[in-house]
Amino acid sequence: MFWLALAADGVVVVHLLFILFAVLGGLLVWRWRGLAWLHVPAALWGVLVELMHWPCPLTPLEQSLRLAAGQAGYRGGFVEHYLLPIIYPAGLTPQLQLGLGLFALLLNGLVYGVLLWQRYRQP
To answer: Which residues are listed as membrane-spanning (predicted)?
Structure first.
Protein backbone atom coordinates (compact mmCIF):
# COMPACT_ATOMS: atom_id res chain seq x y z
CA MET A 1 0.00 0.00 0.00
CA PHE A 2 3.02 2.26 -0.36
CA TRP A 3 1.55 3.87 -3.45
CA LEU A 4 -1.61 4.88 -1.52
CA ALA A 5 0.50 6.63 1.12
CA LEU A 6 2.48 8.29 -1.65
CA ALA A 7 -0.77 9.40 -3.31
CA ALA A 8 -1.96 10.87 0.02
CA ASP A 9 1.32 12.78 0.31
CA GLY A 10 0.81 14.00 -3.25
CA VAL A 11 -2.64 15.28 -2.34
CA VAL A 12 -1.07 17.19 0.58
CA VAL A 13 1.45 18.83 -1.77
CA VAL A 14 -1.26 19.74 -4.31
CA HIS A 15 -3.45 21.07 -1.48
CA LEU A 16 -0.66 23.27 -0.15
CA LEU A 17 0.21 24.56 -3.62
CA PHE A 18 -3.45 25.35 -4.26
CA ILE A 19 -3.69 27.31 -1.00
CA LEU A 20 -0.53 29.25 -1.82
CA PHE A 21 -1.83 29.96 -5.32
CA ALA A 22 -5.23 31.07 -4.01
CA VAL A 23 -3.70 33.41 -1.44
CA LEU A 24 -0.61 34.69 -3.26
CA GLY A 25 -1.43 34.01 -6.92
CA GLY A 26 -2.41 37.62 -7.47
CA LEU A 27 1.29 38.44 -7.24
CA LEU A 28 1.94 36.02 -10.11
CA VAL A 29 -0.85 37.68 -12.09
CA TRP A 30 1.02 40.94 -11.68
CA ARG A 31 3.75 39.43 -13.87
CA TRP A 32 1.68 37.07 -16.05
CA ARG A 33 -1.71 38.69 -16.64
CA GLY A 34 -3.22 35.69 -18.42
CA LEU A 35 -2.94 33.69 -15.20
CA ALA A 36 -5.88 35.70 -13.83
CA TRP A 37 -8.30 33.29 -15.53
CA LEU A 38 -6.99 30.53 -13.28
CA HIS A 39 -6.33 32.59 -10.20
CA VAL A 40 -9.65 34.42 -9.80
CA PRO A 41 -11.73 31.22 -9.49
CA ALA A 42 -9.08 29.64 -7.22
CA ALA A 43 -9.01 32.71 -4.97
CA LEU A 44 -12.80 32.90 -4.83
CA TRP A 45 -13.03 29.21 -3.94
CA GLY A 46 -10.35 29.59 -1.25
CA VAL A 47 -12.08 32.59 0.29
CA LEU A 48 -15.50 30.90 0.20
CA VAL A 49 -14.14 27.73 1.80
CA GLU A 50 -12.68 29.79 4.65
CA LEU A 51 -15.57 32.20 5.15
CA MET A 52 -18.36 29.64 4.80
CA HIS A 53 -16.48 26.91 6.75
CA TRP A 54 -16.93 24.51 3.83
CA PRO A 55 -14.82 21.37 3.77
CA CYS A 56 -12.28 21.24 1.00
CA PRO A 57 -12.74 18.11 -1.13
CA LEU A 58 -9.00 17.40 -1.03
CA THR A 59 -9.03 16.75 2.73
CA PRO A 60 -11.39 13.74 2.65
CA LEU A 61 -9.52 12.42 -0.40
CA GLU A 62 -6.23 12.55 1.47
CA GLN A 63 -7.75 11.02 4.60
CA SER A 64 -9.34 8.15 2.68
CA LEU A 65 -6.05 7.43 0.90
CA ARG A 66 -4.25 7.38 4.26
CA LEU A 67 -6.80 4.98 5.76
CA ALA A 68 -6.60 2.73 2.68
CA ALA A 69 -2.80 2.71 3.07
CA GLY A 70 -3.16 1.55 6.67
CA GLN A 71 -2.18 4.89 8.16
CA ALA A 72 -4.11 6.76 10.82
CA GLY A 73 -6.51 9.45 9.72
CA TYR A 74 -6.94 12.72 11.56
CA ARG A 75 -9.75 15.00 12.63
CA GLY A 76 -10.34 18.42 11.16
CA GLY A 77 -9.22 19.87 7.89
CA PHE A 78 -5.98 20.42 6.03
CA VAL A 79 -5.36 23.87 7.50
CA GLU A 80 -5.97 22.63 11.04
CA HIS A 81 -3.82 19.54 10.65
CA TYR A 82 -0.84 20.76 8.61
CA LEU A 83 -0.64 24.55 8.53
CA LEU A 84 -1.85 25.78 11.90
CA PRO A 85 0.57 23.69 13.94
CA ILE A 86 3.35 25.35 11.97
CA ILE A 87 2.00 28.90 11.94
CA TYR A 88 -0.11 29.06 15.10
CA PRO A 89 0.40 26.87 18.16
CA ALA A 90 -3.28 27.18 19.16
CA GLY A 91 -6.18 25.45 17.35
CA LEU A 92 -8.20 26.93 14.55
CA THR A 93 -11.02 29.12 15.82
CA PRO A 94 -13.88 30.49 13.72
CA GLN A 95 -12.46 33.98 14.23
CA LEU A 96 -9.04 32.90 12.99
CA GLN A 97 -10.58 31.13 10.01
CA LEU A 98 -12.53 34.32 9.20
CA GLY A 99 -9.33 36.30 9.49
CA LEU A 100 -7.49 33.99 7.09
CA GLY A 101 -10.30 34.24 4.55
CA LEU A 102 -10.44 38.03 4.84
CA PHE A 103 -6.66 38.26 4.52
CA ALA A 104 -6.75 36.30 1.26
CA LEU A 105 -9.66 38.43 0.01
CA LEU A 106 -7.99 41.73 0.90
CA LEU A 107 -4.57 40.76 -0.47
CA ASN A 108 -5.99 39.63 -3.79
CA GLY A 109 -8.42 42.56 -3.92
CA LEU A 110 -5.50 44.93 -3.45
CA VAL A 111 -3.42 43.27 -6.17
CA TYR A 112 -6.29 43.23 -8.67
CA GLY A 113 -7.30 46.77 -7.72
CA VAL A 114 -3.80 48.04 -8.50
CA LEU A 115 -3.69 46.05 -11.74
CA LEU A 116 -7.04 47.46 -12.88
CA TRP A 117 -6.04 50.97 -11.85
CA GLN A 118 -2.79 50.69 -13.85
CA ARG A 119 -4.61 49.30 -16.85
CA TYR A 120 -7.22 52.03 -17.04
CA ARG A 121 -4.79 54.82 -16.13
CA GLN A 122 -2.61 54.15 -19.17
CA PRO A 123 -3.76 55.76 -22.44
So the answer is: 6-29, 36-54, 98-117
Range of the domain at 36: 2-121
Is residue 12 within 8 Å of residue 30, measured between CB atoms?
no
3-state helix, strand, coil in the chain (%, to 5): 80, 0, 20
- For 30-45, b/e burial (b = at least 16 CB within 10 A) is eeeeebbeebeebbee
Of 26, 11, 14, nearest to 103 by C-alpha is 26
Domains identified in the chain, total number: 1
Q: Span 10-15, mean pLDDT?
A: 86
Q: Global pTM?
A: 0.71
